Amino acid sequence: MTTLNTTWNRFRIAPGVLILLALMTLGVVVALWRYAFGIGAISNLNDTYPWGLWISFDLLCGVALAAGAFTTASAVYIFNDKRFIPIVRPAILTGFLGYLMVIVALLVDLGRPERIWHLIIYWNPHSVMFEVGWCVMLYTTVLALEFSPLVFEKLGWQIGNVIHRHLTFFLVILGTLLSTLHQSSLGSLFLATPGKVNPLWFSPLLPVYFFLTAVAVGPAMVILESYISSRVFFRGLEVNLLGEFAKVIPIPLGIYLLLRVYDITAAGEWGWAFQGGMSVLFWLELLLGVVAPLILFSLPSVRRDSRRLLGAALLVILFGVVLNRFNVSLLGWVRSTGATYFPNWMEFAITLAIISAGVIAYGLVAKFLPLFVEDPVAQRAPRVSPDLLRRSQFLLFPDAARIQAIAAIAEEVDVDENQVIFEQGQPARALYILLEGTVRLYAKDKSDVSQELHLGTIHPGEPFGISTLIEPYILTASARTVTPCRVLKINGDALRTLCQTDPHLGQTLMQRAAQAALTRMSWARTHLTSTPS
Amino acid sequence: MTVKYGMLIDETRCTGCRGCQVACKQWNDLPGEKTRNTGSYTNPPALSAKTWNLIQYTEIEANGKAGFYFLKRACMHCEHPACASVCPVGALYKTPEGPVVYDDSKCIGCRYCMIACPFGIPTFEWGKGLLEQATIRKCNLCIDRVSNGLIPACAKTCPSKAITFGERDQLIAQAEAQIKKYPTRYVNHIYGKDEVGGTSILYLSAIPFEQLGLPKLGTAPVTALSEQVMEYTLPFAAAWGATLTGLALFFRLRNRGAEHAAKEKEEAV
What we know:
The complex is a heterodimer.
Chain A: H1 2-10, H2 14-37, H3 53-65, H4 68-77, H5 85-109, H6 118-121, H7 128-155, H8 159-188, H9 206-232, H10 239-246, H11 250-267, H12 276-296, H13 300-303, H14 306-331, H15 345-368, H16 376-380, H17 386-390, H18 400-407, E1 410-415, E2 420-422, E3 430-436, E4 439-444, E5 452-458, E6 463-464, E7 478-481, E8 485-491, H19 492-501, H20 503-530
Antiparallel strand pairs in A: 1-8, 2-7, 3-6, 3-8, 4-5, 4-7
Chain B: E1 5-10, H1 19-28, E2 54-62, E3 65-73, H2 82-86, E4 92-94, E5 100-102, H3 112-116, E6 123-124, E7 136-137, H4 143-146, H5 153-157, E8 163-167, H6 168-181, E9 201-204, H7 209-212, H8 224-268
Parallel strand pairs in B: 1-9
Antiparallel strand pairs in B: 1-8, 2-3, 4-5, 6-7
């Protein structure tokens, strides 16, 4: 069992990434097939169902679910709420990747993908699709510019700062304007098809509905994305921040609910809500996707709990938006002929490949670009309670100022059991203090990598990752949680800077680190020599 | 003054011979297609990129006896064509002479025309890859023949004179006279005179048009609403852009004021 666990832990990321890469490869093959033999060769689309999975999911859901970018950006730069600065970059990235994914999907779905640029030169101002095309093009450019400072920052080019400082205000207003226009226009697409869409969904207010649901799903997507990235990248989850952001969701949802109820009543179409299969989807959408999250997000007990927050967010995403877009564009359609449609497996393959590419791109950006910036406001104030630091002998200083300084660069992180926190040989990026639980230190055996050498057990109050303080700042052991743990994570770069600017603090920490290292070494020696290998 | 053409199809005269279906294929050089027995005489079962004109057969009981009724289905050449209204690149457009035609050098293949058409007419070449260049296909009212003084192939070939090609206004007058002359033979309605704002193709029938297979539609173009929304878009964008800028400036100044006040207070202490 131990061996198996070890193997899995060492390739912790690998199985997931391999699956994603395999899906991408399959998608590329299917796409090549489509370019060679036509859309009919890989899809079940037909003259009665000209639009299917790709339009309903990749385009309509894709654009709506990328709304986190403009909702977050407008919260910070239009409503000037600086608290949300830490979630802006990840939200912009999700949005940017989302729009790129939509464009890739269109390059498969369009009959003549090589002519997508015709939208620029041939104009038909009567066409909603013309407006959607322009807005998506322009907004993707805006997102690219909003994202560009990450790249420039990495390269050390000043232009990133210039763009950020001088263009952000303009870009955010333009981005919000463009988003309002095309989020709503995706609903307007179906204003041209009266009589074809079930009356429970067809309404002159479709553009308003699409916009309101996009505004509501934006923060929900930020919650989902933060939750996943906190698990994958061992980041702290800013539950308080997300809970505050989630407060906004009931507003668009409430207006949306009132309008829809009023609209169906005024049109006298309630009869449709009690007949046929579509009525079931209608109630699912309305109760689970609108009413339930409306109530849940209004409750402080939900907004303070990361899992409940996630659950409520998933309701809006899956039932409020995804199901709604499918109902409006595909399921709720009354067809004139008896033709049927269910997506071909290759249509799913294209969609899954695009999602996989998006996930991998997100991972690469998170790994190589400064995606998770520290909040400049929070950096000045302690990020964790100084009392937490006092729980550890390692960080104990008689003066409050030094404890405050360390608290400002520390964060509290929850880690599940049997998770690798860091691995031997990696750069030491952070010093950890265990607050609750048990952590095991181990080394890899040079001759047999599947073997682990137990180097010691960390108990609450003890430090680990002390290579962070000692040159060349490379980890000499790996650490894995034995039980669910709560750890204090102190930013390595910041801590080293602090040690330089405050030599007394530096020397004290260094002494304690050396002491800890020696204790651990002598323990390991007795332990290793007494166990036959 | 250009003559606005149209076509009057008197379904009571149609014998279901499919001559028009064949003539259409011949003139437009359309290949045959693999078909199957669907239990109906309608063959192939639906319009497609290879079949732009199709006779649909309906067997129903009407006026107390079983009857066999025919519908010649092809593009209606609407006065306000939904396909042309929604096409993002203007690949489909209405000519002043009547035909709604397609410029395949512009089309990007989004298939919104197929979604929007109230009659389900435009079809797509599903089996063509990048090199073969898939296009939207549909009847073009033989614009190449009409612009050279000929009448469309289907009208030319019809042996029972069910299809009359001519000036739309005159055809309407002719249809009205026909209904007046034989009130028991026809349903008292010219389909296409007012449907979705009027169509170039007009139908006369012995049985209600929905039974024949034509959709029941209002007199307003189906794209009236979406075009109206598009008209409001620019003014809305200007107003919303100004509102957003105003909001952003307001919140920025308010926060700056608050920060300033806090600082002053701090300094005073």
